[in-house]
Amino acid sequence: MPSSIGLRRDQRLLPLLGALVAFGPMAIDLYLPALPAIAAGLGASIETIQRSVTVFLAGFALGMLFYGPVSDRYGRRIVMLTGIALFSAASIVCTLATAGDELIVARFVQALGGGAASVLARAVVRDLFPPSVAIRNLSLMAMITAIAPLAAPLLGSFFLGFSGWRGVFAVLLLYGLVMLGAVWRWLPESLPEERRGQLKLHQAFTAYGVFAKDPFAVGLLIASGMSFAAMFAYITAGPFYFMTTWNLSPFAYSSLFAVNALGIICTNLLNSRLVILIGPEKIASFGSAISFVAGISLLASILFFHALFPVIASLFLVVSMTGLLGANCVGLLMTAYGENVGAAAALFGACQFGLGVMASASVSFPHSDPGTSMAWTIALTTSMSLAGTVLFRTCAPRPKSSGQ
Question: Domain 10-189+198-394 in CATH: superfamily?
Answer without folding.
Answer: MFS general substrate transporter like domains (1.20.1250.20)
